[in-house]
Amino acid sequence: MFGDNRGMSLEITEEIIARQPPEARAIIRALLAEIVELRGRVEELERRAKGKTPQNSSLPPSTQHPHAKPPRNKGKSKRRRGGQPGHPKHERPLIPTKECDGVQPLKPAECRRCGEKLAGSDPEPLRHQVWELPQITPIVTEYQRHRLECPYCGETTCAQLPPGVPQGQSGPRLMAFTALLMAYYRQSKRRTAEFLSTLLGQPCCPSLTVKMQKQVVAAVRPSYEALAAELPKQRQLSIDETGTKEKNGKAWLWTFVARTFTVFAVRPTREATALTTYLGEQFAGIVNCDRAKMYWFLGSLQWCWAHLKRDFQAMIDSGDPRAKYLGYRLRQATCELFEHWADYRAGKISRAALLRRMGPVRRKVERLLERGTQCGHAATRGTCRELYEHRQWLWTFLRHEGIEPTNNAGERSLRHAVIWRKLSFGTQSASGSRFVETMLTVVETCRQQRRNAFSFLTAAVEAHLAHHPAPSLLSSV
């Protein structure tokens, strides 16, 4: 019996099949067998998809509705919302009086009790400071280029613009600010133009923001390429990737997080070729990453235990009793690992004590993984076999000091990029992708180095207009 969306159905019985020629009977039976197989595969895929959550898979937390999340075991606090009685007061400190733009002394004219006239000054008056935005008006400088005629030959000569003056009507600070609005503050080109026109009094349209975007990329690209050239020399990197779009086609946004800088790259593929482009063929450092196979050729990996914890939760949610038992035991060992690591990070235990505590955890995990290679549940058996065969990549953080057991650095660096992607739906050109990867690199690197991104962008644009070398993002490396 086969149905369609209109409620109509067709029943194919053996009697109907028997009335057909032999060749037709063979074709019908083959098609029926294939339909049954496809239905089974669809049901299996639907069952798997229904059981996937951000807690047991790589699905992002944003895919799960807040009301669908499991309730917390933590009981409701009896405290009232907000600040508690007796908590320390937090307020913005006053700036020195000499730094204020204006000071207004306020003196009472008469006594509030008897009305007698008052005179004199208080040596320590109560200081009250009010912050306000200035009236924002663009600074417009007109350059009058005189064209003069030579009295001897009659040739006319026009004065040139001074070095550093742009050919267009946008100055360096305006270009840097516009780029930050679009890349860091996640505003569309139309909203950016509206903001500049409405709040800053700067005439602007979406096409002008595109022009400024290209000028900023040209100014900052040498700094970006200098950072990318440093990646193969790094001792340790955290690498992650997420899907995006370019020209409405599939693309991938990669992040490479070093100790003092981060490089983003938009590539058309998720294959290992994207890694060799930035790291080369002979990268000798250690990479924190998930279990994706395109990282395996790098050799020295630290698999992320936060991802592994989700894999173990998937075993628990599989419904198979043996897989559920293994998942519980492995997740328990993972929690022990994180407890010992937290004590080490907080300075409560030494490196030697960490290694001593991790010995039993390591043996327990490897015994469970070896046992899981014989599990009757296919997915669990495959996961355990892969982890056991590459178990050296689970404990790299114990062999090399300074290596984290998770890839949280890579995950955190992608957070802003993922939010930008959800708002913008990717880029519409290769030029837009270069803007995204360049600006994300500048913003995240400046955050790591505690530098002012706006000041850096302004200096880069000024240097580009004056034909000077671009400022370096490696100065603090």
UniProtKB/TrEMBL annotation:
Residue span(s) of domain DUF6444: 20-92
Domain Transposase IS66 central: 168-432
Pfam families assigned to the protein according to its UniProt record, in alphabetical order: DDE_Tnp_IS66, DUF6444
Compositionally biased residues, Polar residues: 53-65
Biased composition (Basic residues): 66-90
Superkingdom assignment: Bacteria
Protein name as it appears in the record: IS66 family transposase
Organism of this sequence: Candidatus Kutchimonas denitrificans
